[in-house]
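Quick one: structure for this chain?
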Amino acid sequence: MRHVSLIFAGILVGVPPPDMGAQMSSSRSVNPDPQIMQAEQLLADHRALESLRMFESVLEREPENYEALWKTARGAIVMGLLARGHTETENRWHKLGEEYARRATVVAPDSI
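Got it. Here's what it folds into:
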C-alpha cells in the first residue's frame, strides 16, 4: 500500500518520479515527443481533458511509453480533482489514474 501512496503523492504534486529522465531513451530526451509536449501545454492551459486525450493518443501508438503513462495518470487524477463533489465520477477518474500509474511502474519498476 505504501507503494501506491508514493505513486499518488507524486501524481498529486504534479511532478514526475525523480528518475523519469533515466527511463527515457537518450534520443527521446534530445527530441521529445511533440504530442507529449503539446499535451503538457494543454494541461498548463487548464485544458485537462484535451491533455488527457492527447496523452492517450500517444499511448495508442506507444503503449509502454513511460512518460506518457505517468503523465496520463496525472491527467486522470486532475480530472478526478475537478470532479470533486461528484463522488462516482471522481472515483472513476482516480481509479483510471491509478491504473495508468501502475502500468508506468510495470514499464519502469525502478522509477519509484
